[in-house]
Specification:
Blueprint: E1 24-28, E2 34-38, E3 47-50, H1 52-63
Antiparallel strand pairs: 1-2, 2-3
Pfam family, one: DUF397
Protein name: DUF397 domain-containing protein
Organism: Actinacidiphila epipremni
């Protein structure tokens, strides 16, 4: 989905992100979906949109260390 199709979405990035434009931004949409985009595209690139269940599974994996580099 194009980020421009998500008019009105409130995009946020981590307070730990550097100001070099190499960040991921997230928007929690009103219908429970969650959108992600690359901040260097300045709102003109694609966004991935996840259902609430998909996001919960991803978040759980992060918390559990499933994606940690070994």
């Amino acid at each position: 989905m194009k980020s421009s199709d998500l008019v009105g979405a409130v995009w946020r990035k981590s307070s730990r992100s550097a100001n070099n434009g190499q960040c991921v931004e997230v928007a929690f949409l009103g219908d429970g979906r969650v959108a992600l985009r690359d901040s260097k595209d300045q709102g003109h690139g694609p966004a991935l949109v996840f259902t609430a269940g998909e996001w919960a599974a991803f978040h759980g994996g992060v918390v559990d260390g499933e994606f940690a580099a070994e």
